[in-house]
Structure formats: structure tokens, C-alpha cells
Amino acid sequence: MNDVLTGILDAVQAVDPLLRVLIAAVAMLLETSVLVGVIVPGDTIVLVAGVATTSFWEGVALVGAIVAGSLIGESVGFWLGRVLGPRIRASRMGRWLGEHNWQRAEGYLRRRGGIAIFISRFLPVLHSLVPLTVGMSGYRYRRFLGWTAPACLLWASAYVTVSGVAADTYRDLADRLHVAGYLFVGLIVAFLVLVFLVKKILQRIERRHLTDPADDQTR
């Protein structure tokens, strides 16, 4: 296990750091704009890029690039929603995504306002739909950024920190501990399970807000 994992990490680290940061930024731009997030695995890309960081400042640069790419992508989605939202919704991709998901995003935004924008960054499907939906709603762009920017920062920091710590721990133990590779995989899997559980909790909160008539919108 250690030999295989070391080979994978060495291959990822062999990519120029600037290129890794650029790839991560572009991937997040695509993931958060024009429904591409339904297809592009942003979580996987960030985890792979994160395991290659070898210093605190490399991690900071990667987080900055991920946040910048995410905000650019979400801004593209917002303005496309403002200008072309109904056409995108009626397009083949919009129909493939499902009218119920569009209504879900609209209902969540209507009831929870800015909090819905923040939480959507951590939810599948909604993180691609909400920027378009917010653009169509007439919500102000500055307020949209005010809610989505901290969510993107929290999301990017969590993924890069966990993947970087896991990789550093593995490098420190690989020569001394035969099961170091299993510890690395176990840490990543534990993090992904935690992410899955958090998403499930957030989805339950979302459904409760959509069905509770007494729930007021928070902006």
C-alpha cells in the first residue's frame, strides 16, 4: 500500500505547483457555473490538489485559487441567471436536471434568503443551481457575494487542510510504519463520511424549511 500511495503522491507533486493551482481554480470555475457542477467532481479535484501541498503557503495559495475560481464561476452563474435564466431553465440541460430541482432551489431561496446561498455551497445540485436562481430572483449581486464568499472559503479550507494534513502525516510515517498508507486512506474516508453526514443534515434542514409554513425568510 505504501509503495502505491507514494507513487501516486509523487506523480501529483511532480506537476508544477503553479499549474496545480491553476487547474484547481479553473475546475472550480467550471463546477460552480452553468450547471457544470452537476458533472465536474470539484471535491475530488480539490482533494487531489491538496495532497500535493508541501507547505503552509502552498496551501494558502491553493485555497485562494479555489475560492477565486468558485466566486468567478458563481458570478458567471448569477449574471447568466439574470440575463438568460428562463432560457437556461427551459434548455435541454435545464430539463434534464429536473423542474423539481429548480423549484427546490427557488423555494429554499425564497424562505431562507442569504442563509440558503451560504448552505447551498455544501449541497449537491443546489450549489450549481442556486447562483442561476439567485440571478433570476432579482437578489442584489453584492449581497449574493457577501453570503457565498465565506461559504466558499470555509469549504476550500476544510478540503485543503484535511488532504494536506493527511498527506503530511503519511510522508512522516511512511518509512517507519507499514500501515501508514491505510491511515492516510482512513483519514480521507473518515473526512468524506463526515462531509456526507453534514450534507444529509443540511438537506434535512432544507426540506424542513421548505415544508414548514411558519418558517420566515432570513436575509
Q: How does this model look, in words?
A:
The chain has helices spanning 2-13, 17-31, 42-51, 56-90, 92-97, 99-112, 114-120, 126-137, 141-173, 180-211. By secondary structure, it is mainly alpha-helical. The chain has one domain.
Entry summary:
By secondary structure, the chain is mainly α.
Topology:
Layout: H1 2-13, H2 17-31, H3 42-51, H4 56-90, H5 92-97, H6 99-112, H7 114-120, H8 126-137, H9 141-173, H10 180-211
Number of strands: 0
Largest sheet: none
Beta-strand residue fraction: under 5%
Distance between the termini: 50 Å
Question: Number of helix segments?
Answer: 10
Overall mean pLDDT: 81
- H/E series, N to C? HHHHHHHHHH
Uncertain segments are none
- Helix amount, in percent? over 70%
How would you classify the helix and strand content by structural class? mainly alpha
What best-fitting shape do the alpha-carbon axes yield?
elongated
Q: Radius of gyration over alpha carbons?
A: 19 Å
What's the structural domain tally? Answer: 1
